[in-house]
Amino acid sequence: MRALRTVIVEDEIGAANQLTSLLKSIYPNIAVVTILRGVEEAVEWITSSASPDLAFFDIQLEDGLSFEIFKRCEVRFPVVFTTAYDQYAIEAFKVNSIDYLLKPIKEADLRFSIKKYEAVGRTEVKPLMLDQLADLLDASQKTFTLLIRVKDRLIPVKENEFAYFFLENGIVKGCTLTRQTFSLDQTIEELATRLNNKNFFRANRQVVVNRAAIQEAEYYFNGRLALKLLYAPAKPVLISKARVPVFKNWWATGSSGL
User: Fold this and answer.
1) Residues 6 or more apart in contact with residue 58 via CB below 8 angstroms
2) Torsion angle in degrees (nearest 10) through CA of 111, 116, 121, 122
3) Phi and psi (nearest 5°) for 178?
4) Which tens digit of pLDDT belongs to each residue from 124-178?
């Protein structure tokens, strides 16, 4: 097995480390040349360094979409995009024949991408194609409306009207910014794929919070954070120690949160 030089463009250190670990377990001769955090850093590195054999670009970086990299410099190596966007947006990649990995990245999917690279080599990425994908991805992140059943009526409530969503006795409920609580038909997982990830963050398995509802966060036991929310639920909303860096980055920069 020949040596393989690769580059990772990813603004979340935890995600970059996970991808590095998976790559090395699949391809022992791989060398991760560098991990780049954003568009600016990637453009600077690409224009001044020897091309790698393969690269992995997260789509949404701390300073913009990685599609911008292709507009600002010549990318002379194959790229696999990584993304946390929902299934609607993923269909755009299938249609345009661009390789991608859906986060959280699974070993089987990564192994398939490596084999595809070895068999096919470079897939040309055209600027027009990326513009079309950017438009589709942007559309997929627009605010959506939940239809709430109240007795014999359906009431439309926009996602940004909710302060948080939570699981109570096996039922998913949403508390609005006007302090109304509704039972929902969706699961927490379904909501996580539909909500705008710049505005909503999945604090834990049972709670998804709106940025607008977060008043402050305080340090809790074992390195966790406890969120103080508008109209807070009975139980404290805790963020695990492992998720704290991701939350802080989302809260500060508006990057992907779900």
Assistant:
1) 9, 10, 11, 12, 15, 66, 81, 82, 83
2) -90
3) -105, 15
4) 566 666 776 666 666 555 567 888 888 888 888 888 889 999 999 999 999 998 8
Distance, in Å, from the CA atom of 8 to the CA atom of 13, rounded to the nearest integer, reads 11
Query: Which class for 232: exposed (0-12), middle (13-18), buried (19 or more C-beta within 10 A)?
Result: middle
Dihedral sign, CA of 11, 17, 23, 28?
Answer: positive
Structure tokens at 199: 């505005």
* Spatial separation of the C-alpha atoms in residues 104 and 107, rounded to whole Å: 10
Measured from the Cβ of residue 246, the count of other Cβ atoms closer than 10 Å reads: 20
DSSP 8-state secondary structure symbol assigned to residue 170: T
Residue that is written with structure tokens 């834990």 in the block? 204
SS (H, E, C) 72-127: HCCCCCCEEEEECCCHHHHHHHHHHCCCEEECCCCHHHHHHHHHHHHHHCCCCCCH
- d(C-alpha 245, C-alpha 104), whole Å: 16
- The residue type of 256 is S
Q: Residue 248's CB: how many other CB atoms inside 10 A? A: 13
Q: Which residue has the tokens 């695990």?
A: 240
| Distance of alpha carbon 213 from alpha carbon 195, whole angstroms | 15
Q: How far apart are CA 181 and CA 200, in angstroms?
A: 18
Q: How many CB atoms lie within 10 A of CB 120?
A: 10
pTM of the predicted model as reported, rounded to 2 decimal places: 0.54
